[in-house]
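DM from R.C. (forwarded with permission)

"hey, sorry to bug you on a friday — could you get me a structure for this? deadline for the figure draft is monday and I only need the backbone to look sensible"
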Amino acid sequence: MPYRKILVAVLIALLSAAESKAQFTGKPRYQILTTRNGIFLGNINVELFPAIAPNHVKNFDSLISKVFFDTTAFHRVIPGFVIQGGDPNSRHGPKSTWGQGDPNQPTVNAEFSAATHKRGTLAAARDANINSANSQFYICVAPQPSLDNNYTIYGQVTSGMNFADTIVSELRDGNDCPLRKIEMFVTYTGPNDTLASVPVLDLPSNWSYNVGSVKQLKWLKKNDDVMYHLDVSTDTGFTALFKSVNVGVNYNTVVGLPDSTTFYWRVKANNGGSWSNYSTVWAFSTAGLLSVNNLSFIEKGYRLDQNIPNPGIGQIIIKYAVPGREKIVIKLFDVTGKEIAVLVNEEKLKGEYEITADMNKYPAGSYFYRMQAGEVSDTKKIISEK
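My reply, with the result:
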């Protein structure tokens, strides 16, 4: 009886350990030991991306805790494309069934992302139903952009791609199945707790002006970056977002930028295990907004934000900042240049301010507001709707 109690305690401890692995603190890592016709071939080491595809990572890890993958085969090898494995039929079933899967296996819903299929990418295999992924996975031996946004990426190879190259080069039959069986044995090796690094913005340079209606924004890439999130806004608080998107590369082209507008942008990175904090905020202005006088305005520390919202209806908020004691005048003009209102006309101390312009008083259309601070000024365009 004491031995039985000890055995139960050991089993409980093992189950608890298996369960705890699903509570990831970073990117879980695994070793895929491969054999060819029962003879050791090599180890392919991988890490998974719980911050990108948490359900697929949890599914993979749960299968590891059940020793599910051991003796399953890489049943599909296509040079220049992928190696694919993880089908339970490949343990002992007829070779003709390898790759067909077990219809009783639980499936995982798609978790498509902006991550891209690079050499070494690990992703979920599936059939025509995007939510049909189960235990089968593939590893890319070359970039495969045609698969982007169509399959769930949930990991990458960290070492041992030379063995993936060996496997993909195996002689194969008409179904791309290796003539010699390539088996796998997968074990958990620990976490990678490296946090994602804050991106550094690159181009266009901060406070660029006379930018056209189409502009590529670029930032520096770190080695472990998997994807990014880009925000472009017409206000520094990023409440009036012009664009907010996940991207898989360290650049993005913004189109349809209106003239005479200042834009603010920032980026954060995802390394598969975590999101970084946002980068420093940079700004650029489109054509028709900045002159030499505008540049002096900015260089001296003044700031006039684009109104919120724009286009706007009714009460429109305008924010501005003053670097030191100065008389500030903000006036509103119609499209012909006629002054129609004085919004501010007083001395201000250093600080940030906001005012409200009641556009209900005026017909729908385009207007301009100008902030004058001594000899420097800045102008923004309002589009008022009814």
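R.C.: lifesaver. DSSP finds five helices and 24 strands in the chain.
me: no worries. Helices lie at 2-21, 54-65, 89-92, 161-168, 292-299.
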